[in-house]
Amino acid sequence: MAITLTVAAAERVRHFIAERGQGIGLRLGVRKTGCSGFAYVVNYADEARDDDRIFDCHGVRVLVDPESLALIDGTEVDFVRHGLNEAFRFRNPNVRGECGCGESFSV
Fold it and tell me: Per residue in 36-63, pLDDT tens?
């Protein structure tokens, strides 16, 4: 089981944590929502929970709860810029469908 970050995503997370002045890494998860079923949740991680799975990618910790990991195992997180827009992009091999707006996915 693994979650990975591209170099660009790791650099962006390090930048966000440095600006914020605290945090041990990136917390990645999913929640039920949207027209396709699930949406990604990205937050700062200030501490590890007892049941977290922790992955180290390019010097950045990624913390994931077990329920979310079952849905996003194998995901690569990238950070992309298109003109003035910038966002994290998820390459999740478990996705079977996405909604038209790109905000939710199904597995």
Answer: 688 899 999 999 999 999 999 999 999 9
The pair of three-digit structure tokens given for residue 67, joined into one six-digit string: 């329920």
Give a yes or no: residue 91 inside a domain: yes
Residues 6+ apart with CB under 8 A from 31: 38, 39, 41
Calculate Rg over the CA atoms of the chain: 14
State the burial class of residue 53 (Cβ atoms within 10 Å of its Cβ: 0-12, 13-18, 19+).
middle
CATH number of the domain encompassing residue 59? 2.60.300.12
Q: Can you read off the two tokens belonging to residue 63?
A: 């913390």
Here the tokens at position 12 are 């962006």
Looking at the whole model, is its pTM more than 0.85?
Answer: yes
Instruction: Please give the residue range of the domain that contains residue 72.
Output: 4-95
Number of domains in the chain: 1
| 101 domain residue, yes or no | no
- Joined together, the tokens standing for residue 68 give 């979310």
